[in-house]
């Protein structure tokens, strides 16, 4: 089952509850970018992800590749004042 999540706003905190499994790098990337978009949209300074119901299936190399992608994209994210 692909990644799905619910979100809830509590002030400047965005709470994410995730279910499913990380079947591919693309799924995890979309998941992360969607959460980032929600945080920016709602100007949240904090994000808390509850991934206890998420099955991790990616290999170590896939996880490393995602970290590489995230590090390249992180320069486009600015800390809110």
Order of helices and strands: EEHEH
CATH class: Alpha Beta
For the biggest sheet, the summary is: 3 strands, mixed
Shape: flat
Distance between the amino and carboxyl termini: 38 Å
Strand order of the biggest β-sheet: 1-2-3
Helix run count: 2
Low-confidence stretches: none
Number of domains: 1
Approximately what portion of the residues adopt beta-strand conformation? 25-35%
Brief synopsis:
This protein is an alpha+beta fold. It has helices at residues 25-41, 60-73; strands spanning 4-10, 13-22, 46-56.
Explain what you see.
- It is a single chain.
- With 81 residues, the protein is an alpha+beta fold.
- It has a single domain, classed as Transcription Regulator spoIIAA.
- Helix content is 38%, strand content 35%.
- It contains two helices and three strands.
- It has helices spanning 25-41, 60-73; strands at residues 4-10, 13-22, 46-56.
- The chain has a three-stranded mixed beta sheet, covered by helices on one side.
- Strand 1 (4-10) and strand 2 form a beta hairpin.
- The longest helix is centred in the middle third of the chain and has 17 residues, at 25-41.
- The mean pLDDT is 89.
